[in-house]
């Protein structure tokens, strides 16, 4: 069993809840290792992961009672943060970050490592790092300027303001902000959609979008042709077309 996270599997959805609510789910060594372990050891039946927080926060970032002078920050990033982030980034199924409350520091960037971020309206995103004399890590300096542009990225990082969920959605930092009362239902419906969907296509969409970062149009057309060639041979494509023609809902198997 896990000590710092709560993991459950149901109906093709694996739910991983950060579970140190007394410190707003701050990340310590154990939690980083457990998130990586849970993400790399998903059941065969899992077709969507929901990463969320217990209590009123999503994650407050590095546990600051473990930090400070003398700590080898670079080693912690390389040996503990990188494997955790890689496990999310390279997950074999879509990952939803369900941001139930504040996401600060590496906790914000942990959420942004997911494929899709859904936040409760009362949640917020804080690049808190410069308040303690650090730079944003855990991938923040890569993902944030691409999502929101340089001016907003710079402002978020220099001023360490709390960016409310609605503004994060308006800026394109996250997919959607939903009223708190509807949050669980919306996350549940989105997770069900992904868990019952064409998993191979979802993973190829992720691959194509990531490849676009360094490609011009000609190179990206090659990526699309290669990936679409693979999709054309899937059962889910055959099923999707058959279901359309028969005017019924498709039954995707994920392959
Ligand atoms: O290895 C390395 O160090 C490098 C890696 C760095 C990665 C990083 O993530 S650096 C950034 C670390 N995170 C932060 O700087 C955020 C610190 N927390 C906050 O700014 C605020 O707590 C929040 C904005 C997250 C929430 O504010 P608020 O007012 O809603 O709650 P609070 O009262 O500040 O916090 C509630 C409790 O959680 C409180 O404990 P208490 O007083 O009830 O006993 C607080 O100390 C604790 N807590 C919050 N964040 C952390 C934490 N304890 C340890 N570590 C935390 N990060």
From TrEMBL:
CDD domains: crotonase-like. PROSITE patterns: ENOYL_COA_HYDRATASE (PS00166). One of its GO terms (molecular function) is catalytic activity. Gene3D superfamilies: 2-enoyl-CoA Hydratase, Chain A, domain 1 (3.90.226.10), Lyase 2-enoyl-coa Hydratase, Chain A, domain 2 (1.10.12.10). Pfam families: ECH_1. It comes from the Bacteria. Belongs to the enoyl-CoA hydratase/isomerase family. This is Short chain enoyl-CoA hydratase /enoyl-CoA hydratase.
